[in-house]
Amino acid sequence: MNKKVRVRFAPSPTGGLHLGGVRTVLYNYLFAKKQGGDFILRIEDTDQSRYVAGAEDYIFNCLKWIGLEPDESPLHGGAYGPYRQSERKTLYREYADQLVKQGHAYYAFDTPEELEKMRNEIPNFQYSQHYRTASGLRNSISLPANEVADLLDKAIPYVIRIKMPEDLVISFDDMIRGKVNFDSWQIDDKVLLKADGMPTYHLAVVVDDYLMKITHAFRGEEWLPSAPVHVLLWQYLFGLNEMPQWAHLPLILGPNGKLSKRDGAKYGFPVFAMSWADPKPGDPDSYRGTEGFKEKGFLPEAFINLLALLGWNDGTEQEIFTKEELIEKFSIERVHSSGAKFDYEKAKWFNHEWIKKLTVDSWSPNLSGTVKKLFIEKGIPITDESFFVKVLNIIKDRCTLLIDFVSQGSFFFQLPEQYDLEAVKPKWNEAKKIFFKSFIEELNAVPQWESAFIEDGFKKLAVLQNIKPGELQLPFRIMLVGGKFGPPVFEIAAVLGKEETILRIRYVLELI
Ligand code: GLU
Known about the structure:
It is built from 21 helices and 12 strands. By secondary structure, the protein is mainly alpha-helical.
């Protein structure tokens, strides 16, 4: 029987999730769900020096926002917990000891000062097979056995390092790139267990993927150089047959090479899923905070849709996919092996399409709350829920970002802030004035307050008074909207209601 597919996303809580990070989540998720498998979130927080307060909550909230909830996580629990590496601390030691016993790892007693000295003396120094026996380094390979025993006896702090084999080609099959090879002599002896007993990422990721029965993992290509270390650890500890299949995702490119968080500030687009202010002292850029896709007004549906297409397509022209369609269609064979360029204009296009696609009635309470808040911030209280929904539904096709709802919709809730009378004045005349006065009478008599009836009354009256209806529509729009924008004018009148429509016509008749 085939093993149950178990796919993990294993972020370190070092900051907000940027586009690349969320795409990694998404591909892990889609792959897992497509195979009917589990999607696991593991927090890799063994490097306390890189820990950033708030980053873990941010990750949970972000997955919630985009609707990619894990089956197992520190929040959701599961049979393979704990899912936070700092809570698994005691698990790793035995594997490091096993590696030492097998001769695949060794103790290194060098102090940070001693290592610093080596770095100063030897250009491009790396703790590797080329230097591990160099004078000045103190480890269980360079020192005589009795000295090592003595240091251990005295509880002198040490780290455990992997002993990279001398001349080995290390390979594995990447799901995206195919066979990837590395020369062992080029790779340094990475630390596996730190002096404080905490594992490093390399040891923890392998042990946890094993203990959590992970079968597949997508991760960013920045982890490719670490892969040979992981392959060896798998081989030494658990056997290569147990190793998950990896897919190293290519970079997301910005306007100038690799997309960076600074690109966001530079070119004015979001790079984080949700707003993130890095509480990292000493980094002036980080303090400023970066507005996220969520706060910028992206719908989660649009966000995952655009991310899915950054490096994958289904082989057709289709671009708009629901999450369910993505799960059904996602295939690793169609993930590109070269970097995908992020285009903010295209991202906005996705959002526009999604705003058009969803009826406002189907919005989540969270989303309508967000839009309501935007109105309130502009001094427009929303008191009538069903009127609000009606308004949003008729303007949504004109909105690209959520904030557009306010600029497109505020005139429904209050008189227009400005009237573009200049657009009307040149062709304004007494006949038109008479038309609108009699149109008020007509409106009072409309059998049903619906756009078709209003339009019918408007056009018949125009014919009767011998004026082209087309010439009257612009003034009517200016009366209701204030400017030359918005949905069809008769639909606007229908939503505004009879009294308000008449009031606005009267008001502008006084102004021109
Ligand atoms: N903890 C690593 C990170 O922060 C995960 C790398 C991996 O997926 O193996 O991205």
